[in-house]
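Course assignment 3, question 2. Fill in each field.
Student: A.L.
Task: Predict the tertiary structure for the chain below.
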Amino acid sequence: MSDAPVGAPLLLADLTWEETRDLLPGVGLVLVPVGAHEQHGPGVAMATDTTSADALCRAAAASLGPRVAVAPAIPWGISWHHMAFPGTISLRSATLVAILEDVIGSLHAHGFTRFLVVNGHGGNTAAITTAVEEVKQARDIPFVAAIFGYAFIAEQAAAVLPAGTPGHGGADEAAVVLAAAPHQARPDAFAPADSTGVQVETAALLRAYGGTLARPFSDATRNGVVGDPRAATPDVGRRLLDAAAAPHAEGIEVHQRVAGGGRFSFREAVTEQPVRVGARSGGRRGAEAAAARRPRPRVLFPVGVHGATSACAGADGRPSRRVSGVQAPHRPRSAPVVAAWVAVPPAGAARGRGSSWRRGGRRAPA
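Answer field:
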């Protein structure tokens, strides 16, 4: 038997049964990527969401070594709204729930005890939430949770790509595909969204407040694209994946160290990140703005896995709603998307009126 080389992720699909048996005691967490097989416009392939979820898991696991394993990606999801575009495969919600229950249940029967489902497709969120809750109730598993993994990539894309270019089949997804699976991209066919303009504001308003507008994707776009993939390059894709994998790995690492009893808490996952602020320089406010721009502790963690609008801790540590894994309520259109792990004060941080954390921490930083 040969261990995974340094810098390579531990992939369960690549192991023999004897290698699995021998490595199993050292595995503290299994990542289960879930994607979809659905249209992403004329420029990127059906497997885009699966490719991004799998690539994100592999990148995070590679940085953490064989204590984190990656299960084979589940390549189908809830994609009924894309069925107007040939090639899309959609599961019923109950089917995806059953697949996740069986995958996690099988691995748990062999001795794996902790699982994190990493979702790459927003349409899967409700079914994955149900699966996580049901498998926790049905089996004595110490830890099982789920995150909307693509939120990490979306957060980076908002800072890297031109406004209006990210989206379904847009520059962010096209860039990740160019970097992770270039054979799935057709750069010569990249084209901007051919939007119908139908119910755009209604859908945005409902989404902002945790609602859902059930409609075929073809009602919104004629070519299946939202955004503009023409800004995508392989280099941008690598930057997005590397930057997105870092907070993902940090949260996992803290879980490995401190989590217990099945509680999903990454409150101590501190990293150094700059903060974008809108205050202009000059005077006391300018000094505060300059201080806020300096790197300061950033904590990313998910709170709760129950329900589509379950409680999340906001940047001030108080509960606020979560929309499909993204800290979104009342978020201005210009504000950066925050991944499923949101910023909170680190343990022991000052919380008084004069603390820089309190001044800079009212909302999650970019």
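Instructor remarks: The longest helix spans residues 234-258. The two ends are 44 Å apart (CA to CA).
Grade: pending
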